[in-house]
Fold this sequence. Notes:
- Helix content is about 80%, strand content about 0%.
- The N and C termini lie far apart (about 60 Å).
- α1 (about 5-20) packs across α5 (about 65-75).
- The chain is mainly α.
Amino acid sequence: xxxxxxxxxxxxxxxxxxxxxxxxxxxxxxxxxxxxxxxxxxxxxxxxxxxxxxxxxxxxxxxxxxxxxxxxxxxxxxxxxxxxxxxxxxxxxxxxxxxxxxxxxxxxxxxx
Length: 112
């Protein structure tokens, strides 16, 4: 079964949280930056084999553990729900930015 990047990221996050480790702690153990780890957990870049191996070692799991978790998330439709949530949050942020810009423009035109 093919799994999405979102499911893989969710699997990495679940394994990290189960190990009770922060992104900073995993970063120290793997040499992968906190920002890159955050992007991986959010399914933004594809996780390459070397990174997956470093993460598995740091989390004391094997690579099959990540695959099994990701497959479970995929089968349950959780990756689709996570994707939809991210899309909704992105839309909300855009709307908030537009509202702020409109308020600033209205305030500036009132002062002129």
